Amino acid sequence: MAMRSSLRDLQRALAGEIGFSSQLEELSTSLFNGQLPAMWAKLTPATEKQLAAWMLWFQRCYKQYRQWAEHGEPAVIWLSGLHTPETYIAALVQSASRDKGWSLDKTTLYTKLTKLTDPAQVAEKPRHGCYITGLFLEGAGWDSERGVLARQEPKVLVTELPIVQIIPVEATKLKSSNVFKAPVYVTQARRDAMGAGLVLEADLASNEHPSHWVLQGVSLSLNIDT
Fold it and tell me: Residue 76 belongs to what H/E stretch?
């Protein structure tokens, strides 16, 4: 509604029916330059996308919300399309701990990468946890055959990961080895000094010591600039 009303006001201003406010001037300039207007950016999750890429994101986001409202929670969540993905992740932990009788402060998450790339390949959502898509890997590549982190190929800056399963577990029972815990951020800008922008940590299988990937600056992002 905010987008529609602002565009309607811009049309009226261009027609001389109303005066140009500073907000309408900024909207006009942003649209002309192919940038996301500030008044629209305030209503959406953090993004570094330009206007054309953002419009495609917005359409897909609207489609997911509409299907969710009409048909229930999808089998695979496009995490990039949620306005507050960290809240959804927290809800998964709370739901599993309540259902299984676990202590909330001793419940954590474990992520497992599948070999599935198309949400249509997933028949139904798990009882606890979920399947997610829309994670982009920076600083490393992904060996889909062996299911482990690999050295980044030349000129390949970002790699989209296959579908990821998020599994709630009791922290005391989680035993992991040969795993690198990669931070998952909302955008490629990562997080600010207050920690805003960090969604969760993903467990990625690795044959290298974790320090190797830390020095490579390996991380995951939900939204890239294209």
Answer: strand 76-78
Question: pLDDT of 24-47, one tens digit each?
Answer: 899 999 999 999 998 898 888 888
Side-chain half-sphere CA neighbours of 180 within 13 A: 28
Helix 2-14 / helix 22-33 crossing angle, nearest 10 deg: 100
Give the global pTM: 0.86
Q: Indicate the range of 39-48, 112-121, 134-143, 186-195 predicted with least confidence.
A: 186-195
What contacts 24+ positions apart, CB below 8 Å, involve 117-120? 117/162, 117/163, 119/74, 119/75, 119/76, 119/78, 119/163
Distant-in-sequence, close-in-space partners of 156: CB < 8 Å, separation ≥ 6: 141
188 to 48, 59, 85, 168, 196: CA distances (angstroms): 8, 21, 15, 26, 13
Q: Are 24 and 9 contacting, i.e. CB atoms less than 8 angstroms apart?
A: yes
Side chain identity, residue 15? A
Question: Which amino acid is present at 181?
Answer: K
Q: Under 8 Å CB-to-CB from 1, ≥6 apart: which residues?
A: none
Q: For residue 31, what is the enclosing H or E element?
A: helix 22-33
